[in-house]
Amino acid sequence: MELDDLDRKAAEAFPGHIVRKDLVRRFRGQFPVPTYVVEFMLGRYCASTVPEEIEEGLQMVQSQLSDRTVRAGEEELFKSKARDRGSVRIIDIITARLDSKTDSYLATLPSLRLNDVRISDKIVLDHERMLTGGFYAEIELGYDASIAQEKGGRPFEVLSLREIQLSTRDILDKIAAGRAQLTTREWKDLLLRSIGLEPASLSARSQDTTLLRMIPFVERNYNLIELGPRGTGKSHLFQQVSPYAHLVSGGKATVARMFVNMANGQRGLVCQYDVVCFDEVSGVSFDQKDGVNIMKGYMESGEFSRGRESIRAEGSIVMVGNFDVDVQHQQRVGHLFGPMPPEMRNDTAFMDRIHCYLPGWDVPKVSKELFTNRFGLVSDVLAECFSRLRSQSRVNVLQGRVHFGGALSGRDQNAVNKTVSGLLKLLYPDPTVAVPDDDLEWAVRLALEVRRRVKEQQKRIGSAEFRNTQFSYVIGLDGVEKFVSTPELQSEDSIGSDPLPSGQVWAISPGGQDESTGLFRIEVTESPGGGVRILNQSPPGPFRESARIAEQNLYARSRELVGERNPREHEFALQLRSFDAAKSGEQLGVGVLIGLCSALLGRPLKGGLVIAGGITLGGTIEPIHNPIDVVELAMEKGAAAVLVPVSSRRALIDLSDDVATKVQILFYADAPDALRKALHD
C-alpha cells in the first residue's frame, strides 16, 4: 500500500502509536475479543510503516492471540494446560464478586466458563472495574492440585493480570505535540481513520456527526441520544473502540447495576466507566419504579442519592436506537423521541437533560467502502487520551468571543457549552493552543443545532415554555446575529420559522396579466462603494424596475429608514431567486427596499415573515389587486406572518377562517412603518 501524505505525517508525529487499520479487520471474527484488544496487540508489535516489520509483528500477534484466546469448545483444553503446567496465560474479560460465605473475592472468566476462581484482595482493589462490568486483560491463571482434592475446593486462581492498556501517563502530552504538526483538516481525518473510517468516503455532514459521537468520551456527564436507521454503526464506537465505555444491551437495567448496590454499597456503571451506552433504547426499562427518576436526577447534576449518601459520578449517558420509519415520516406522525421507552417518550423534563440529539439519519449505512486501509492512532491510545481530556474544559474559549441569543434558557446554554467544549477538546487536545474563529464557529453551530433539535421536540409535545426555538449567536462584539436551524425541519422552497441572515427577505409578487402569484427570495449583501448591482444574468424587466425604485427611495428617505448611515457610501449586490412558476418579480419594491435596509443595518427580519407590496418613486405604496391569493400562498409556503399594505384590509375580510387563523396579517402604511414591523427584535 502506498503511503499518502497523512500517513507519512502521522508516522512522524506519533511514532509507535499508529497502526494500519486494515490489519485490525484481518483479525476480526477470528478471535472472540473486541477490536481494541486486537489493536492493543497490533500496537505493541506492528506500530511501524516498514512492511517487513509489520509482517513480522503480524505473525507475533497471530501467534499470541491463537495461544491465549479461548474459542468455543476449547475450554477444557486450556484448563488441562493449566493443570499440567501449573499455570496458563489467557486473554479474557474478567469480573469479580464478593463471596460473603468465605469472605473472599471470586473471579469469573466467561471464556473458560469458570465463575469461582480465587483472586487476591489486592488485585481486586487495584482493578475495581472488575466488580462492575469487568474488563479485558492478559491473565495468568494458576492451578493448585492440592486444593482440587479438598471438598468444595477451588483450584483455579488468578496469579496476576495486566489490563489491556498500551498507553503511558504522558500520552496526552505526546498526542498534543503530534497534533501541533497537523492542520485541523488533517487531524479531523486522522481521528476518523483512528476509529476505522475513511474520511474521503464520508460527506462533511457525516464527518461532523461522527465527531459528535466522540464527545461523551471527552466530556464528563454528557447526555447524548442518537436515533436513526438501522445499520449505521451507532453502537460500534461504544462497544469496540474504547475499554472506558460499557454497552448495556436492550432490556432490564437495574438501579443496583447502574448506580449503586444497596446491599453491599458497590458503585455502579456510571461510577466505573467514562461512557455508559444503552443499545436498542426502545426496549430499556428499569427494575424499580423510581429508576427513571434516579436517572433524570443523575443526568441533571451528576449525583444520585441512595439511602443517606449522595454519590457523585462522571459517566456520560448515551442512548442509541432505531427509527422504524424515515425522519420526515416520524415528524409527520409524532416527534423525534417517538422510539424511546414509554416512560421517557413524552417527558419534557427528561428531554431537557439531553445535551445533544445526534441526527443518526445523516450517518451512512456501514459498508466496506467506508472502512479505511490507512494508518490511524491505536484505539487504546486514543481512548486513554479521551479519558484524560475529561478533566479539562474549553468553555473559557467562548467567554468574550461568542454571545448567545435570548432564546437559550440556562439548560440550553449549559448543553451548548458542553458540546462546544467537547468538540474543541477533540480538535485541540492542548488547552494552551488558540482556537481560530472558523473552528469556534463550526463548533458553536453544531452545538446549537443538536440542542435545538431537543427543544423542537419539546415544542411539538405542546409545552408553551419551549415555544421559542430560534437559537442564535454572535461572534465578536461587532458580529452579525446568525440563526441556526435543524436541517430536517427546513425546506429550501418553504418559509422557515427562523430569521434569515440580514439582507435576505421572503417576498410575494401578486403577479400580473400573464402570471400568477409567486414566492421569491431577495438576497442583498453590502460592501464599501456605491450603487446597486443585480447579480442575476439578464434580470426580468419588472424586477429591475422594482430595484431601481427601491434604490431611489432608500437615498431619498435614508434618515427615516437607516438613521445616520449614508447608503450612497455602500455598494449593494442584489440577487433574486424564484420558487414558483412566476419569474418576472412584479411589484417587489417594498421587499427590495427592506432587504437593502436590513443589509445596511446588519439586522435580520423576523422569522417566518413574507412581504408583499410595490412602491412608487414618490414613496407611495401600491395597492395589491389580489391580496387573498397573496395571503393564501404565504400560508401554503409555511409563513407565520405576512406584511401587506393597509389598503388591502377591506379585501381581506373575505379571507377564509382557516387561513386567517394560521397566518398573522400585519398591515403597513408606508416604507418606514413596514421596516419597523419587519425587523427582528
TrEMBL record:
Q: Does the keyword Oxidoreductase apply?
A: no
- Enumerate the spans annotated as BREX system Lon protease-like BrxL N-terminal domain: 12-143
GO MF term (any one):
serine-type endopeptidase activity
Which biological processes are named by the entry's GO terms? Answer: proteolysis
Which residue range or ranges hold the Lon proteolytic domain? 520-680
Keyword terms: Hydrolase, Protease
Q: Supply the name of the protein.
A: Protease Lon-related BREX system protein BrxL
Protein species of origin: Rhabdonatronobacter sediminivivens
| Higher taxonomy | Bacteria, Pseudomonadati, Pseudomonadota, Alphaproteobacteria, Rhodobacterales
Q: Which gene encodes it?
A: brxL
